[in-house]
Design a protein that fits this description.
With about 325 residues, this protein is mostly helical. About 70% of the residues lie in helices and about 0% in strands. Helix 3 (about 45-70) runs antiparallel to helix 4 (about 75-95) and helix 3 (about 45-70) packs parallel to helix 6.
């Protein structure tokens, strides 16, 4: 189910809002949103619910085990295990087939290419699980005792499919205690409709134009002006598509009393590539900065650290290739 579908806009969302605002108990409200999120995610492919819930349960119990050991090697190993499970699953379902094709092309070996159905939104909820595990490990946030609250954080439907990526420390208090109001609901509705217009009216129609030009059999005979217009149209299309979804997610969050951080800040007005990435999909860029770039040393590591990372990366790639040939080669 997507935000721009008729089922979501005129059936799912009105029912969830009516049921949500018909109760006053905070825990019951959270349970209603959790059930709605699972229905939203399982629409069309119910089996994906079990995958997401399985990862949530594994991460919850690993974090609980990790917190039994406040310090020491065991705590570090448990944290690394949880992250490895999350990244390993993401790699298998999203990148394994692509990786097998690369290995087959490089080595010339006869490798069986397996086809795996990709669960929607897997990158976003995987990144959120990893950030929760690491933040608890580094004591930036306290462990969440309720598995229902952890499940709600991971599966909350407004930001489940296309972000923004929400940190647990920014939403934990809102899960337990937040304030709904007519003003916030009205602001959320306005923001949702703005994103809806970006996606349906602008992005979808630009997609029809760009696809008709780039998909034409006579593309190489097309006027250079038309091609440039298609390139510009595609740039606008992906912006209005992504930012439209983010606007709808932020608006939906406000409807239920949640406040999400902004995810786009006029990226095409950036003055440099660096400035562009600070403005484009802000939550994703910030996630990679805080959980990948800085932990690896950032720009403070120097040449020696860079050489170590390159060596480690080379060994990891070589080992993965050898394992792939062993498992899938004939």
């Amino acid at each position: 189910m997507v935000f721009s579908s008729i089922y979501f806009t005129f059936l799912f969302l009105p029912i969830v809002i009516l049921v949500y605002y018909s109760v006053r108990n905070r825990k019951l409200k959270n349970l209603i949103i959790l059930i709605a999120s699972l229905v939203f995610y399982g629409y069309g492919e119910p089996k994906f619910i079990y995958i997401m819930l399985g990862l949530i349960v594994v991460n919850y119990f690993l974090v609980s085990w990790m917190c039994i050991h406040p310090y020491g090697t065991i705590r570090r190993i448990v944290c690394m295990t949880a992250v490895a499970i999350d990244l390993g699953f993401l790699f298998v379902v999203k990148y394994l087939s692509f990786f097998l094709r690369i290995v087959k092309g490089i080595t010339g070996r006869n490798i069986t290419i397996i086809g795996i159905t990709l669960p929607i939104g897997i990158s976003f909820f995987t990144f959120q699980m990893i950030s929760y595990v690491i933040d608890v490990y580094k004591e930036r946030v306290e462990q969440e005792k309720s598995i229902l609250n952890v499940s709600l954080y991971i599966s909350f439907f407004p930001q489940l499919i296309a972000g923004p990526i929400v940190r647990y420390n920014t939403i934990s208090e809102q899960i337990r205690d937040r304030k709904e109001s007519f003003e916030k609901f009205g602001a959320g509705t306005e923001r949702f409709m703005c994103g809806f217009a970006k996606k349906v009216i602008i992005a979808n129609n630009l997609a029809l134009i760009t696809e008709s030009i780039f998909g034409a059999s006579s593309l190489f005979e097309t006027s250079i002006i038309v091609v440039w217009l298609a390139i510009i149209g595609y740039a606008l299309q992906i912006y209005y598509d992504f930012s439209g979804y983010s606007d709808m997610a932020i608006g939906l969050g406000k409807m239920f009393g949640f406040d999400f951080d902004e995810n786009f800040n006029y990226p095409y007005m950036a003055k440099s590539i660096t400035d562009f990435w600070r403005r484009w999909h802000i939550s994703l860029s910030a996630w990679f900065k805080d959980y990948v770039y800085i932990p690896l040393g950032g720009n403070r590591g120097g040449k020696s650290m860079l050489e170590i990372y390159l060596l480690f990366g080379s060994l990891l790639v070589y080992g993965t290739v050898q394992i792939t040939l062993f498992l899938y080669g004939e």
